[in-house]
Amino acid sequence: MRGFWRNFCRNRGAVVGLVILLLVIATAIAAPWLYPGSPWDMAGMPFAPPGEMGMMLGTDSLGRDVAAGIAHGARVSLLVGAVSTVVALVIGIGLGAIAGYLGGLADDLVMRFTEFFQTIPSFVLAILLVAIFTPTIGSIVFAIAVVSWPPVARVVRAEFLSLRSREFVQASEVLGKSRISIVFGDILPNALSPIVVLSSLMVASAILLESALSFLGLGDPNMMSWGFLIGSGRSVIRMAWWMSVFPGIAIFLTVLSLNLVGEGLSDALNPRLARNRGGKA
Amino acid sequence: MTRLLTVENLTVGLPAGADRPHAVEDVSLHLDAGEILCVVGESGSGKSITANTVMGLLPKGLPVKGGAITFEGEPLLGLSAEAMRSRRGRRMAMVFQEPMTALNPLMKVGDQIAEALAVHGKGAEAKARVPELLAAVNLPDPAAIARMHPFRLSGGQRQRVMIAMALALEPALLIADEPTTALDVTTQAQILRLIREIQQRRGMGVMFITHDFGVVAEIADRVAVMQRGRIVEQGTASEVLNAPRHPYTRTLISAVPHGRASDRAAIGPEPVLAMKGVTKTYQRGGWFGARAVVKAVHDADFTLNKGETLGLVGESGSGKSTLARCVVRLVEPEQGEILFHGANLRPLSRQGWLPYRKRIQMVFQDPYASLNPRRKVGDAITEGPVTHGVSPAEARQRALELLRLVKLDPSAMDRYPHEFSGGQRQRIGLARALAMQPELLIADEPVSALDVSVQAQVLDLLAEIRQRLGLTMLFITHDLRVAAQICDRIAVMQRGAIVELGPTAEVFGAPKHPYTRSLLDSIPGRGWTPPELAEIS
Amino acid sequence: MELSRFPAYLAGRLVKAAIVVLAIVVCNFFLIHAAPGDPASIIAGQSGAADAKFLEQLRAQFGLDQPLYVQLWVYLKGVLTLDLGFSHRQQASVAALLWDRLPATLLLTGAAFLFAIVIGVTMGALAARRVGSWSDSVITVLALTFYATPLFWVGLMLVLLFSVTLEWLPSFGMMSVGVELSGFAWLLDIGKHLLLPALTLGLFYVAVYARLTRATMLEVADQDFVKTARAKGVPEGRILRRHVLRNAMLPVITFAGIQAGQLIGGSILVETVFAWPGIGRLAFEALLARDYQVLMGVFFCTSVMVVLFNLITDLLYAIVDPRVEVS
Fold it and tell me: What average pLDDT does the segment B161-182 reach?
């Protein structure tokens, strides 16, 4: 654990990312105290530029405080990002493990299914799902999870496939251990690092996806979100640039911090690869 | 004889944080035209680094710290990158260890040879020369092979292509870096013969890097032995092989499997394991089109008696590992009987197999892959017995005894596998199998991945434990010398079938099957018997 | 792959593509039925646009009073004859609407793709050649930045900079309104309109390709056959071109196939920001109007585009890599 932390800290970008991420999380938690009341309420004059009339980041066309919107939007972004990633992980790990451990026909079927989901344009499917099931936080999480599990399944399958034929797993078979104890005791712990790295990147892309959906007007109408703020600023960008600029920066910083943390995790979990690592793609 | 290459006091540094300051230290050697110099050493001895320095192919981060290299009368170390490049391939060429990865997978092999000619201004001759060169390395139908991509060729064929490529510009010096290590023994014999033949015909100087003293005996005129970056002994082949002076050389040579069977108690006909008509086939190919069916195992009946060690010997792809894995149900054969004390194990379910897990155990080949990197050694040894109902305290007690038995410190219990060397891990793997107190032990190439000195220790340990515990053993190996040393009887496998089975002395002394004969003929250095050397303290 | 095997390979891939398209149609069908409420009213939209007559017409079209498998069959038959339904809102057949918008989307995504792959691969190759240099760091930082920036926001910021502040480029549409242009002037006008949207859509993929190329080039440069080439005296420049780059292109081609769907998804956002008259913009309009018939048409059409693009990359891969076998 100490070695892990030291390797993580060796990547300076990752430490910066972790600090930003913690700040975003703190803002999300503190939002109700920082900006009490609903972010949908009018707080001042419409179109107040940043810094004027006590509005740090200005107000929108209905006089709502952009800063309050960003603080409350952090809650939605992080929540959707985290929950949809968990759901996608459950689906992906389950299917990937079945395909990789059982092999044969099960593998064939699962992989065809996964390939199918990777072929169809995921964002279009997400739009369709949210639109048909009406935009709520639940349908958004569901849609994002449905389009983001395939990479998990592929990674887990590849890991399981390679670990299954590794000699220490065969040794466990010969010792007579049960399938469950082999999968959870021998295979999964050794497949964990790529899953951990992948999931931090998935939270990042889930946040991007959520913002894109709410930008198109498919956000939960009861919850303030960053994408919605940018979307509502789009048509008035010539007179109120701040309405779209600041929420965009919030998204950028959050996603960047998650990507940086992901790289740090990857370095810390595979110290040997860190030196020559080219990229995550 | 003309002096082709001289290396004087060469020192090459290692990056900070390595286990020693220099990869190669104060190395001096020389090579004449028409001579084969073998540079021998275990992994990490610096033999490849020396060769790469001569070629000017050192990886970044390994600086030459001192010394001189003279090639054809010219100093090499001061030359510009371009001057070195123009000599590489033209005056000096190199063949590498891994034929499977040493060729560009996207280029036809003919084009890759032609490229060697083209970059030295002989592109115009390529059309005529490429088939000539392929023919010179005894490849059938050179014109067709030239048009193939590397993935269509076998390892041995690829290595021939590599040699043809190296010979394209008739270099004065050929450096061969373990060129036969990745090959089967019969292929190895052919490649060694080819190198020797071409070298004699063209009067080339060859620097041949190897870890295998059998290969040295086969091919070397002179020998240089390396240990931890230094040359510890140098001399003619017969001097070094038959009267080694340096203690390290003596240890290495006495560790070479001598192939002499040890005296063993007589074994009565009391069958523990009998394989009858076991067949395993693999199918390749998709849902459409023709499927290729590969018979991995067929016609491989044998009986193994109590206390006996049977060696399954064969080249890669002969089915010996598949057959062994059938015994422990890691591979499920579609036909046949696997009789263990008369009970057929093949139809048993996963559950039905459980009682037999205690009685049949296995030791694996790769010391780095056969232990779960995230589990402590103690847990690895105890988890088998605990799974079968032994109390954790008792299992732990037994594990401690076993560690002593395999000559490891009891403190190993609470450490992780990565803290151990290859040989030590192999002992841990052995302890894990013995913890189940098996009657039958399957050993799948248990020493193949180890350096020769470590190999000897593990083999001795295995022999001792077998004796002490009265184990019955199925021993899989591709190394005939190892088999001769440890097995009572030998079964030779070829393409999934046992072609010859008999007592070790008979199989080696009077082989009946032509394949067995060709295997025996291919043992590198078969004309050389390692000398009996007094123990060095 | 050898040329003689190519037809069989092509046939196999076509069958696979057809199966995927069929599965997408089935998927579409079940989506309507999975949604809560009467499929007909969902298809017609909840905005109240649907009158009773239209609902009846829909029920008849989809055979909603019949068992599910009959409905599926009716639906399949419709799609396979390119009858994707009728948009009550737009008073036009969905197929015609899509057909109308297709060229604009192809132009945008094609331009963005070419831009991304050319610039990205070049940048990645440069970075790999000078690992650790400042240009390598700049490329890495740029890649991280584009990775983390929402596409639509990049579009808005570009509009803010180049259209609002600098007034260099138009901020919406595909051509200038109210002017009749022809020949070169017409092309130039479209080009000017195309620049910002293509840039927006392409920037992210520039980053992706740059990173991928850099990583694979470094990986390939470490492989044995590169050492072989060096040992036979091949000059470094030629090693890079003939050995490293060619092998490094394989993962890039694979990735181009995988990300085709994302590119088309991204075009919805970009077309929305720039009012580009393509399929994405159509989807946005349909979304505002809750015009599901059109939305499903968009899903079908974009899926087919991706399948076709995948087919092309598969074939390309098979041509480059001799190891691909008919499976």
Answer: 90
C327 domain-assigned: no
Return the residue of A nearest to B328 by Cα: A174
Chain A contacts of C153, Cβ < 8 Å? 230, 244, 248, 251-252
Among the three residues C94, C118, C138, which one is the final residue of a domain in this structure? C94
A52 pLDDT band, cuts 50/70/90, is low
Q: Determine the 3-state secondary structure of B227 from DSSP.
A: strand
Q: Are C141 and C229 in contact (CB under 8 A)?
A: no
Domain at B271-359+438-536: CATH code: 3.40.50.300
Residues C60 and C169 in one domain: no
pLDDT at B310 over 90: yes
- Mean of the per-residue pLDDT values of chain B: 88
Does any CB of chain A come closer than 8 Å to the CB of residue B384? yes
**C257-288 pLDDT, tens per residue?**
888 888 888 899 999 888 889 898 898 888 88
Domain limit, last residue, from C94, C110, C127 = C94
User: What average pLDDT does range A4-29 have in this prediction?
Assistant: 85
C235 vs B contacts (CB less than 8 Å): 85, 119
Nearest to B94 by CA among C237, C230, C236: C230
Q: Which residues pair with A176 in a beta bridge?
A: none
Q: What is the pLDDT of residue A277?
A: 36
**84-113 in A: which are within 8 Å (CB) of B?**
none
Residue B72 has pLDDT above 50, yes or no: yes
Residue C62 is predicted with a pLDDT of 64
Query: Contact A176/B384, CB-based, under 8 Å?
Result: yes
In this prediction, residue B234 carries a pLDDT of 93
Residue A114 domain-assigned (yes or no): yes
Cβ contacts from A onto C, under 8 A? 152
Q: Report the chain A residue with the minimal C-alpha distance to residue B435.
A: A175
Same domain membership, residue C112 and residue C40? no
Average pLDDT over residues B63-85: 90
DSSP secondary structure string for all residues of B131-149 = HHHHHHTT-SSHHHHHTS-
Q: Which residues of A touch C151 (CB under 8 A)?
A: 212
Residue C280 in 3-state DSSP? helix
The pair of three-digit structure tokens given for residue A31, joined into one six-digit string: 């939002």
Surface-to-core class of residue B434, CB atoms within 10 Å of its CB (0-12 exposed, 13-18 middle, 19+ buried)? buried
Residues of B in contact with A173 (CB under 8 A): 328-330
Look up residue C321 and give its two tokens.
Answer: 């890599």
Q: Is C7 on the interface with B (CB under 8 A)?
A: no
C136 has a chain B CB within 8 A of its CB: no
A81 band by pLDDT with thresholds 50, 70 and 90: very high
- Residue C20 placed within a domain: yes
CATH number at residue A192: 1.10.3720.10
Total domains in chain A come to 1
Cβ–Cβ gap C246/B106 under 8 Å: yes
Domain range spanning residue C302?
Answer: 100-320
d(CA C208, CA C133): 20
A181 in a structural domain: yes
Query: Which range in A160-164, B499-503, C293-297, C314-318 is most confidently predicted, on average pLDDT?
Result: B499-503
- Select the residue from A20, A108, A120 to test the C interface by mutation, using most C Cβ atoms within 10 A: A120
The predicted structure's pLDDT at residue B265: 64
Q: Which among A168, A170, A176 has the least Cβ separation from residue B330? A: A170
Confirm or reject contact between C141 and chain A (CB < 8 A). no
Torsion, Cα C139 C143 C149 C152, to 10 degrees, reads 90
C125 at interface of A, judged by CB pairs closer than 8 A: no
Suggest the residue from B104, B108, B153, B165 to mutate for an interface test with chain C (most C CBs closer than 10 A): B104
Q: How many domains does chain C have?
A: 2
Q: Which long-range contacts (CB under 8 A, 24 or more apart) does B282-288 make?
A: B285/C327, B286/C327, B288/C12
